[in-house]
Design a protein that fits this description.
- This protein is α/β, with parallel strands linked by helices.
- Helix content is 43%, strand content 12%.
- The protein is built from ten helices and four strands.
- The protein has helices spanning 2-14, 27-38, 60-71, 80-91, 100-103, 119-128, 145-148, 150-163, 176-181, 194-198; strands at 20-25, 43-49, 107-113, 134-139.
- α1 packs across α2 (27-38).
- The radius of gyration is 19 Å and the shape is globular.
- The termini are far apart.
C-alpha cells in the first residue's frame, strides 16, 4: 500500500501538478492518506471516506469480499493479475495509525456511514490526529456515503475545498432551515450577495450532519 501511494507522486510530477486535494474511498482512502503523510507539501487537504486497513492485516476475506462486490452486477471481468497484486499489497500493508499524529500536518475531513463497518476506525483516526486538523462527518442511516449519500459528499467536498481557498464561487444547495435563518430581522427574505457566496463557512463542517427538511 505504501508503494502504491508513493507512485502517485510520479503521476503528479508527470502531469506537472504541484498540489492536490486528495479524495479516497475505502482502500483508496488508505492509499491517499499514506501518500499525503509522506508528501505533505504536495497536498492541500484530504477527504477520506470509509477508510479501510488502518491497522495491520491478515484477513484475505476482506479482499475476496471486495472482489465479489466489484463483480456483482457487472459484466466486465477484473484483471486477475492486478487484483492479485492489490490483494498482496493490502495484506502486507504496514500499520499507519501511530504515525498519524506525527506525519499529518494538513487538513483532513473524514466521512463514514453510520451503518458502516469503518465507523470504529474512523473515530479512532479522528482521535489520533492533532486536534484542529481533522473533522469527521458521520452520515446517518447509510453504509456507503459515496453511493448512498452523493449530495452530502459533494457538499462536504465543496466546503472542504473552500476552506482551502479553492472554488470560492461554487454555491452549495441551501436547506429550508438555512434559508429561514438567512431572512432579515423584519421577516422578509433577502438574497445573498456575491460576497456572501464567496465567503467559505467552515463551521458547517460539524461532527454531525443534518438532513434537508
Amino acid at each position: 500500500m505504501e508503494a502504491i501511494a508513493l507512485n502517485l507522486i510520479t503521476v503528479m510530477d508527470h502531469l506537472r501538478i504541484k498540489q492536490v486535494v486528495g479524495l479516497g474511498d475505502g482502500a483508496g482512502a488508505n492509499i491517499i492518506l499514506r501518500f499525503a503523510m509522506n508528501h505533505p507539501g504536495r497536498v492541500l487537504g484530504v477527504l477520506a471516506i470509509n477508510t479501510e486497513g488502518v491497522g495491520t492485516a491478515g484477513y484475505k476475506e476482506i479482499i475476496m469480499g471486495k472482489i465479489k462486490e466489484m463483480r456483482k452486477g457487472s459484466s466486465e471481468e477484473l484483471n486477475s493479475k492486478n487484483v492479485a497484486k492489490f490483494a498482496e499489497a493490502y495484506v502486507k500493508r504496514s500499520e499507519m495509525l501511530t504515525s498519524m499524529n506525527k506525519k499529518i500536518k494538513f487538513d483532513v475531513l473524514m466521512m463514514t456511514g453510520a451503518n458502516s463497518k469503518c465507523v470504529a476506525d474512523t473515530e479512532t483516526m479522528h482521535k489520533e490526529i492533532t486536534p484542529g486538523l481533522c473533522s469527521m462527518i458521520k452520515v446517518e442511516e447509510v453504509s456507503d456515503p459515496l453511493t448512498e449519500a452523493k449530495e452530502k459528499v459533494a457538499e462536504a467536498l465543496i466546503l472542504f475545498c473552500q476552506g482551502q481557498g479553492l472554488m470560492p464561487t461554487i454555491n452549495r444547495r441551501m436547506s429550508r432551515q438555512e434559508s429561514i435563518n438567512s431572512q432579515s430581522s423584519d421577516g422578509k427574505g433577502r438574497k445573498l450577495s456575491m460576497t456572501d457566496y464567496d465567503t467559505p463557512n467552515i463551521r458547517r463542517l460539524s461532527l454531525t450532519t443534518r438532513d434537508d427538511e
